Predict the 3D structure of the following.
Amino acid sequence: MSLEIPDQLWKTATSTIGLIAVRHDDGVNVMSAEWSYFVNKDPLYAAVVLSPRARSRELIPERGEFALTLCAEEQAELADFAGSFSLGDLDKTSSELIEFGAPQATGTPWVKGGLVALECVLRETVPFPVHTMFVAEVVAAHLPETAGRPLVKHGPMHALGEPVRRTAVVAAAQILPGGTLRVAATGPAAPGADLWRVSLVGTDGTRVDLGEHPSAEYGDFLVDLPLPRDVPPLAGARVMVEREGAKPGFARLAGGSARP
């Protein structure tokens, strides 16, 4: 196996495209940024990562603030345009596709039409070998009347499809000191009772029922179960977790001759 990192490996990932607005002496510059993220919940922080070619990389520290619009899928043409030209080429805000909203907490207007527009105050600048990350606190947010769908980058620009439908349980298991069996699982919502059935399955197919149990607080499953005294040897056994309407999930029990 080669240790060489493929060129442009980062394009295998997915990110939400942002439109950054920042003031300069003659007006406002708007650029698109492929790497735009939320990076903290409370207080809410957002970050953008800019290349050395971006003029906004100089403007943001000077101004100490910027606006970030996370693009909706209808803004693909605008995102492409804003990322294709520099402030040194021309005033991009003359495009009729760029419409600004009035700021409420900063002095920087924000681009309308996205999923959400954020007024941001710069809190930290993180230099990397090539790019620079600007981490900012969100001090105001502007949401459209109708919720949109994100415009994302995965190589080319993409709109999101339908939500992925989960069809199977995923389970893990561990024997704790004293012979207790801890089982964790996730899976789709059950059409009937919100229950998970746990069983031990021996190497010969013998099945020991460990009962049905309800979900945890957030809809997943985590339970500690005492192993019955008549349980078969655990070496090579599997834990099976079943849920109505889903394929069962299995977990390996490594080693494990322990008995209660």
